[in-house]
Amino acid sequence: MDWTRIAPIILLITLIAPTASASKIDSLVLEKLSEPLAWQYSPQSLTQVPVIIEFREDLGFPGLKNSINVQGVSKERELGIVDAISGKLDSRAIVALENNPLIKRVHYDRTYYLDPFEDDGNQTQYTPDLQTSIGQIGATNPTFNGGSINGSGVIVAVIDTGIQTDHPDLSANLNLSASYDFFDDDSDPTDGHGHGTQTAGVVAARGGINGTAPGATIMALKVFSSAGSGATTSMIIRAIDHAIDNGAHVLSLSLGATPIPHNKDNIMAKTVEAASKNAVVVVSSGNNGDEIGDTGTPGTSAGAITVGAVDSSNSIASFSSNGPTSDGRIKPDIMAPGVLINTTTLSSGYIRNSGTSFSAPFVSGVAALVKHAHPTWTPEQIRRAILSNTDNISGDPHQIGNGLLNASAAINNLVSVDKTFLQFLDTSSINVTLTNNMSETRAYAVSFSNLTTSQTIDSGNISLDNSSFSLTANTSRDIQVNVTVPNGVDSGIYDGYMYINSNNTIKVPIVLRITTTTSTIACMTNYCFSDGDYCTSRTANPGDWQFYRINVTQQYDSIQFNVSWTGSHDIDFFVYDPLKNLQSATTSSTTSPETITITDVLQGEYIIEVHPYTLASVPVTANINISYNSNSNVSTNVSWIDFGYVHKGNTSSIVSVNFTNTGAGDLTLTPSATAATE
């Protein structure tokens, strides 16, 4: 059946107002309060809420932790890697923290979970599945320059439910003195659940079965209870702090939480990015299924190697979570086996499980192998080696990232690129540096796939200065990749690949975000198509993204963005400033309206992204209101018929725009609008 989307209007509005001084209007209450914490906050309640208080980096952290002495705040722990403390907070402390110049942000100390995984029952040590999976990723007895590589001398911190300390396949590789239980706050990391023992086995078991890096050292850091619950952000950050302080080269995290799209509110993403300067950080993408944009936190962090799952035939596992992130980045980064993985478990036994929890440890193990082969390499060099040298499998970039993990290629193919994906956000060119660390000259040929979403941009629209060239040993070359967007293309997120072909093929995902004045909808998946005229019920991420552009040429005191609708729908929206930084976001359940206020207003083009997270019915009418505050005030109302699928030949769009100047000065508006149906 042939379907299309109703196309809304996009407005490119230039605002020109006289210069005038004016007092700022009140911003949203509690500007320093992260949105997840704001959801928990009730000014009438004195119930203490677990929080993480983040300090300003420019003031120097060591002396600040003692400066927080506010009624209603109880301090608990220092979190050095992100200049923060954890504690509890009640409503009496809100205003004091809001006015404290030392405080950057107050975050909710949220709870993380183990992704649900499929337990196929206890196995014998002779079940060969783990060895089969290790062969699938090219990690069977790897070598480099004629020497055996097994991860010897490399420390892998497994941040999980702990470990069976006397398991015969794990005890020899366990550094018990460096291990710790952050849930119970003691030095005994004994696993009462099993998940940590299982993931550790995939990394570095040695005995009845062998893990990916059987010579690596395991540092077991317990953050979950024996029931597999209760891990908090602060516990995980403390574990990461401990791992870095005790010399871990690789951090392996098979855990997650609902993604937080707003970087200011994602203290875990900041932690991972800070840790990635000192160690390779590997995170599972999650088991949320095949919807768009459902990779969990901390898998959304730019500093993590985020891992999805494939089966033994290299097909994407049905449970493996997809990207992209809310700001258009590719996630997961790479794929590894995650279906029916045989590994160690409690009672000195073995078990076969499925889930991305068991995919991430394969990458952690390969990171240990690469570090063993190249002990002087930095975490970033190891990351590039792993992501630049993968095997091709079927799937879109937001499903599979760079492709299937290949340990042998990561160890031996000393060619890499400095970017693990190319993200075109309203830019037409990106520079990529290709480095040949081989001892010989290599010839390269660069090609591109088509870029696709609901439409296709032909690969002929992607070019570079020279598609064929050679690199001598230990040299680098800059490649400028240029994209030309053809006329008539819908706005949205398009993805594809750049291929750098030599003895091995380097595959680099490409993400292109288009905003135009003719159409704003990108239907990124057709999951909801059925045999009716509409998808009458949506219970998971629809995956549609819309983009609006507002060009601000005057310095306003504040801008307020408001999205409203009728019905039990969950619609999120995000605002990017002219520097392409995510300024703010709303992800509040089904509450309408949702509002964002920006007080540090930059001149230039703002991008508004709208994302229907869940819809009770379709079509849905939503409204954007944009208010600017200065001596002259203008409010803009933009309405569109949204989220409805109709047959071709019966498309329509209904748009109304109202402008009101309530200020004392004159205001000149130059609106441009085009309605389009497809």
Q: What is the arithmetic mean of pLDDT?
A: 76
Shape: globular
How many domain regions?
4
- Strand percentage lies at 25-35%
Relative helix content: 10-25%
**End-to-end gap:** 15 Å
Number of strands: 43
| Helix vs. strand class | mainly beta
Instruction: Report the biggest beta sheet as strand number plus sense, adding barrel if it closes.
Output: 7 strands, mixed
Can you put this structure into words, describing what you see?
The chain has 678 residues and is mainly beta. The chain has four domains: 35-108, 2-Layer Sandwich (Alpha-Beta Plaits), CATH 3.30.70; 118-414, 3-Layer(aba) Sandwich (Rossmann fold), CATH 3.40.50; 422-514, Immunoglobulins (Immunoglobulin-like), CATH 2.60.40.10; 537-674, Sandwich (Jelly Rolls), CATH 2.60.120.380. The chain is 13% helix and 34% strand. It is built from ten helices and 43 strands. The strands form eleven sheets. Strands 3, 31, 32, 34, 35, 37 and 42 form a seven-stranded mixed β-sheet that branches. A seven-stranded parallel β-sheet has the order 12-13-11-14-15-16-17, sandwiched between helices. A five-stranded mixed β-sheet has the order 21-30-29-23-27, with no helix packed on it. It is globular, with a radius of gyration of 26 Å.
